[in-house]
Design goal:
CATH class of the domain at 9-111 and 163-189: Alpha Beta
Structural class: alpha/beta
Shape: globular
Distance between the termini: 11 Å
Helix content: 55-70%
Strand content: 5-15%
CATH architecture of the domain at 9-111 and 163-189: 3-Layer(aba) Sandwich
CATH superfamily of the domain at 9-111 and 163-189: P-loop containing nucleotide triphosphate hydrolases
Largest sheet: 5 strands, parallel
Strand order of the largest sheet: 2-3-1-4-5
CATH topology of the domain at 9-111 and 163-189: Rossmann fold
Mean pLDDT: 89
Number of helices: 8
Length: 196
């Protein structure tokens, strides 16, 4: 997917803990363009509706008609069409491909479940037995969220969520890389692949 020269639209996606948001922010800073995170748009709605547990909120809306998903994906599409933006969404890279929306490049990041759990746990200041319990909860939530997302995106858009290579220009496993190594490798792939 190529875009008119001069404007950059990068789309990052990946399951929780894959590093997609961290790397999207790094590219936003590198190119000095806005970072739009779909997760923030969902969180704002949860806050507006005074819902404290974000995981529960996502599960509730996934069982409904998913009008919020459609609204947020429309917002992402509008940003993509304007250009000069880094979009961070679990599904928008696939939607861009399906809808013929021009992007500089779409990047899907993944990591082994154990690594993703460890990354989530690293953001929390818990020790001892609480840490063990949190690890179990995080693992359970990540698995559940993946199943919900997979079913939801298939139902809403016919997207095969578990097969990102069908939709994304670059698909990478970040399990054995830190954020800087991941950023450097993606930047190299973007340049070598003449996306930039």
């Amino acid at each position: 997917m190529t875009q008119k020269r001069g404007k950059i639209t990068l789309v990052f996606g990946g399951p929780g803990g894959s590093g997609s948001t961290t790397i999207a922010k790094m590219f936003s800073k590198h190119f000095n363009i806005p970072h739009i995170y779909a997760g923030d748009l969902f969180r704002k709605r949860a806050k507006k509706e005074d819902i404290e547990n974000f995981e529960e909120f996502l599960q509730v809306i996934s069982k409904g008609g998913n009008t919020l998903d459609l609204e947020i994906d429309k917002v992402m599409e509008e940003y993509a069409k304007k250009g000069n933006v880094v979009l961070d969404s679990k599904i928008f890279g696939a939607l861009a491909k399906e809808r013929g929306i021009n992007c500089t490049a779409t990047i899907w990041l993944d990591a082994k479940l154990g690594v993703r759990v460890k990354r989530h746990l690293g953001r929390e200041d818990v020790k001892g037995i609480k840490r063990v319990l949190r690890r179990i909860v995080i693992c359970f939530n990540l698995k559940k969220r993946y199943r919900i997302d997979k079913e939801k995106y298939k139902r809403l858009y016919g997207i095969k969520y578990s097969n990102p290579s069908l939709y994304y220009d670059i698909v990478m496993d970040t399990s054995n890389m830190d954020a800087q190594e991941t950023f450097n490798l993606i930047l190299k792939k973007l340049k070598d692949g003449k996306y930039l």
